[in-house]
Every structure is written in C-alpha cells, then in structure tokens.
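Subject: for your reference before the review

Hello V.,

The reviewers asked for a structural picture of the protein, and I figured it would be easier to keep everything in one thread rather than splitting it across files. Below is the amino acid sequence we used in the manuscript, unchanged from the supplementary table.
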Amino acid sequence: MMTDDMELVREYVQHQSEGAFATLVSRHINLVYSVALRQLRDPHLAEEVTQAAFIILARKAESLRPQTILAAWLCRTAQYAAADALNIQSRRLRREQEMHMESMENQLEPESVPWSDVAPILDAAMAQLGEKDHSAIVLRYFEGQDLKQVGAALGVSENAAKTRVSRATEKLRQFFHRRGITMSSVALAEVVSAHSVQSAPLGMAASVSSTAFHGTAASPVTLSILKTTLKIMAWTKLKTAVVVAVVIAGAVTATVSVRRAKAPEPSSPFTFAGYAAPEDAWNSMAWAVSVGKLDKVKASCTPAQYERLMKKMAGKSPAEISEELIHHATTMVGFQVTQKEVISDDEVRLLLLVPPSPDHPKVGHDLQVMQKVGGQWKYAGKWGVDIK
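And here is what came back from the structure prediction:
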C-alpha cells in the first residue's frame, strides 16, 4: 500500500493527474475524517479539517520523500489541523462570550451619569493613563477634535487614532467602575465631552498673560503653587505616572473626605481585593484605611497589628480615628509593590515604592510585613523605611 500510495503521489505531481489525487482522497478520507472527528466532536468542523488536510497534501506532494507512509503523514496532518481548528473555535467562543458579557454590561449600565459624579475623580483617572492615551483623550474629548485631527497630532492614521481613543476611554471607564461609578464607554465620552472644559472668568486670560509674560508680581498663593509644581515636574522625570497620580488622587481623596459626613459610603482611591495573596491583602488594608472604617481595618490586620493601632489611637473618638485613617490614606496613594521577599510560608515582606506626598515629600521605599492568619493574608505592620 505504501508504494502504491507514493506512486499515485508521483503521478499527481508529474502529470497533475486529477484521477490519481481522487484515488488518494477516496482511499484515505475515512482515516482523516475520523481523526478530525475524534478531536473536534463536531461533524461540520471535522469536514473542514478533512478538506484542509487534503489541500495541504496537494500543496506538499512534491516535497514528500519516496519512503513516506502516506496514511501516517495524513493522520499527523489531520491532527495538526484539528488542533488548530480547536484553537480557532476556542478563540471564537471566547470572543462571543466577551461580546455577550459586554453587551449585557452595557444594557445594565445607565445611559448617562451626572457630571457631579465624574468630575471629582476625572483627573485622577486621567493621571493613570500613559502619555499617548492621555493625549488622545485630551485631543478628542477635551479639545473636541475629530479622529483625523487626533491622528495627525499623534502621528498615526485616523483608524489608529480611533483605536487609541477607544482603548483609552475603556481604561477610564474601568477606573470609574472600580470606584462604584458604572457607565458605558459611550456615556463616559459624552459626559466628558460635554463638561470637561468650562469657560474661565471674563478677563482672566488677559491677567494671566500679563503676569506670565511681563513677570509682574504674582500672589503668594500662586508662588507657592508654582514652587511645588516645579518640584513635581522634576519628580515626574523619575516616575511620571506615580507622582502625578499621588498628587491628583491625594487631592481627590481630600475632597471626598470633606463629603464623608454626608455620604454613608465614601468613595476610595483603592479597591478591596480580598486576602488570598499578600499584595491583595495590602490593597484591602489600604482600602479599609481610606474609607475610615475601623471594623474593616481590623479585618485586614493581624491581631497584634490591630492592637498596636488601637494603642496609638488611644483617647481619640471614633470620628477622630476615622478622620486620621482617611488622612493617612492620602499618603498611600500611588504606592507600588516592586519586590516580594518570602520569609516563610506564613510571612512575606513587600517592598513598596513611596512617591512624594505632602506628609512625605521625598521618594523612597517602605518595607511592609504581611502574615497569614487562618489561611488569609493580613497586614502585620512596617518592617522598615528608606526615604531618600
């Protein structure tokens, strides 16, 4: 059978014999189809794979060696083709599921969200974006430019600009969603486009221009802001996203703190992440501190650490403790875990990058201890600090 198969192959190659190829197909089609069907369990898809296998034979026939066992070669080819078909099918199903979930989310999301909900944290959200995403949002929604203009400014095509704007808008939407503000990307784009740029007071442009251009005396407040901003701009060369985020998000958190007396559920620059991993536990602790909930803080700490905290807060009222926790959280915004040192199965030390803040104006590192208690990771306190 082997010689007969390869003779038919040679006849097909040398004379483009349709009859020789048809004989090969007829002889081996059941084998190829069966291999495909076993893997796919889908008759229609198995037919597609069978077709693909014989197309490959037609294209590769000339390169087959005389010693080739064609049945085995076709079997292997069918296995490869079926595996690829499974991957294609899996990707298609995954895309369909993602599209379905996105459709369901968009249906559940409100068509519009009040600007008053978006405005307090819009700039914190913008600070999380990379430079190109940030520029795309500013040009498209703040400046009101069309996609062709955005593309020209970014040095890309109109289609590329559309993709960039879409992805950046989705990142913003996810930022708001993590903070309890749920809306579609379309709704977010509409509210930002409509409200992000407000008219400055009449005559302000002339005053600002004159002061900046002629160097006339600025107010003490302006000079103070100027000095701090220049420092921030210098720091941004080291860690742009972290520095900008901590300054803006810190201001946002302070704004939220003012509203806490009125709002039963304060917003937070952090997200509760559970206690399954040390990094998650640290984030959950930061979230608990940022919302000023002592019971949540207790749940995120080891008993020893919570006892130390209570001794530190001795003599203060619950309201004072909550206020102090919330203030402390503003110094934690922008912390990034850069290294994890495993001490044992139940203890890990996290090295965190510490960006500048009003309480800690220099960049450095914190070493925080996380311990496992009852199968969950908890915050056990600070091991050391290196602020430079």
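For the response letter, the relevant points are probably these. The beta strands are 336-344, 347-354, 364-373, 376-387. The radius of gyration is 31 Å.

Happy to draft the paragraph if you're swamped.

O.
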